[in-house]
């Protein structure tokens, strides 16, 4: 009897080990949707470090007929970053809503897209997980996946929704529609996770979201110093003039001047204007709280600025490898460069109209102080100028490489 009990125990133990191994070492069939423009860029950033060879059996990339450039962008990104992939197949579907299309007319196009997607996905019944970051095309896909499961046409496909980085206070329309049906709903800002209780705040990329078991979120990280713990690669925007709240992380100081959003006639779009009789008393500073720091490690500061033919200056504070805070101040009214222990002032030339100012913080820190750049602590922009966007990048990108939302849509004169 004892021998039989031991034998049963050993068989149960071995069976459990095999079951756990099959569960956690299973390779998944993954469907990833690429939307237009910024959606594709954010998804590529999320996919950059994921071990597809180890975790995936088949990968299906999906895009709409209208997004003809997305496969080329994805292929170039995969090649440039040397991402190893198993078998990949592209799936093309109809878009549910075109840019600037009215919501009323989009009902019909969404129904057509849903029917087309239903027929297409009948060929792919082995999907384990669907990943999307919110382009409108994702709505028909989710409807079809759920409908086919309820009709016993396919096994259950888990849905991972990753909200866009630009959504700070409210969810996107796609996010609101899929909030209750997603198996995992990931947001990139802690403020959203507090407002939407089902959302999970994760400042990590896909490896964190899908490590070990693809359906379990691990290592959720609390945000500390602004961008300190966030994944930093490619582009990191700190001001976008057409955003819902462009100055959300900025503090304003105004005396005999104004800081307001206006429409620039040259680009026919909203921009932020900083004007004042004295440049030193009219400015914006990020972060707004003087006790906080940005913690941005990307070495290139890029600003799309319009020359108003008045005095203009900006200042950046960085931390070097000697743990010393250094300031760099550039002005269009200064003629010589002066290096002091804690501040370096330098001249700046702006061409007429819109300019793209590219500031290599790593190079300036090394040349001015002989030390290595660690991170950016603060940014301060003074009067007089108009601002389209301020962002950091890991390298200098050509106009062709920039995502559409980072372009001015004008020929830009580059400044060193």
From TrEMBL:
One of its GO terms (biological process) is dolichol-linked oligosaccharide biosynthetic process. It comes from the Eukaryota. Keywords: Membrane, Transmembrane, Transmembrane helix. The chain crosses the membrane at residues 6-22, 103-124, 130-152. Residues 226-409 form the CFA20 domain. This is CFA20 domain-containing protein. It comes from Paramecium octaurelia.
């Amino acid at each position: 009897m004892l021998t039989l009990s031991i034998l049963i125990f050993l068989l149960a133990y071995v069976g459990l080990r095999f079951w756990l191994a099959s569960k956690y070492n299973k390779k998944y069939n993954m469907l990833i949707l690429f939307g237009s423009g910024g959606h594709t860029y954010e998804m590529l950033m999320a996919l950059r470090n994921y071990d597809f060879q180890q975790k995936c059996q088949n990968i299906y990339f999906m895009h709409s007929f209208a997004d003809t450039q997305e496969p080329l962008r994805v292929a170039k990104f995969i090649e440039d970053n040397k991402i190893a992939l198993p078998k990949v197949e592209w799936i093309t579907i109809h878009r549910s809503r075109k840019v600037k299309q009215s919501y009323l007319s989009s009902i019909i196009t969404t129904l057509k897209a849903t029917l087309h997607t239903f027929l297409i996905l009948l060929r792919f019944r082995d999907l384990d997980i669907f990943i999307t970051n919110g382009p409108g095309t994702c709505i028909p896909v989710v409807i079809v996946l759920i409908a086919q499961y309820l009709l016993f046409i396919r096994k259950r496909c888990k849905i991972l929704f990753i909200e866009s980085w630009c959504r700070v206070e409210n969810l996107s329309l796609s996010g609101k529609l899929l909030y209750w049906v997603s198996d995992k709903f990931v947001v990139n800002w802690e403020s959203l996770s507090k407002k939407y209780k089902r959302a999970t705040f994760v400042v990590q990329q896909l490896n964190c979201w899908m490590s070990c078991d693809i359906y379990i979120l691990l290592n959720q990280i609390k945000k500390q110093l602004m961008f300190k713990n966030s994944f930093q690669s490619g582009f990191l925007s700190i001001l976008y003039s057409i955003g819902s709240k462009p100055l959300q992380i900025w503090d304003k100081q105004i005396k005999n001047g104004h800081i307001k959003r206006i429409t620039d006639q040259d680009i026919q779009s909203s921009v932020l204007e900083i004007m004042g009789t004295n440049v030193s008393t009219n400015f914006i500073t990020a972060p707004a709280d003087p006790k906080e720091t940005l913690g941005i490690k990307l070495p290139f500061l890029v600003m799309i600025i319009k020359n108003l033919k008045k005095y203009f200056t900006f200042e950046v504070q960085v931390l070097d490898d000697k743990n010393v805070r250094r300031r760099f101040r550039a002005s269009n009214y200064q003629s010589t460069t002066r290096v002091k222990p804690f501040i370096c002032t330098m001249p700046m030339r702006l061409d007429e109209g819109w300019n793209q100012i590219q500031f290599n913080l790593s190079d300036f820190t090394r040349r001015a102080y002989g030390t290595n750049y660690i991170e950016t602590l603060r940014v301060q922009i003074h009067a007089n100028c108009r601002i389209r966007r301020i962002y950091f990048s890991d390298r200098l990108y050509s106009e062709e490489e920039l995502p559409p939302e980072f372009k001015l849509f004008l020929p830009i004169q580059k400044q060193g």
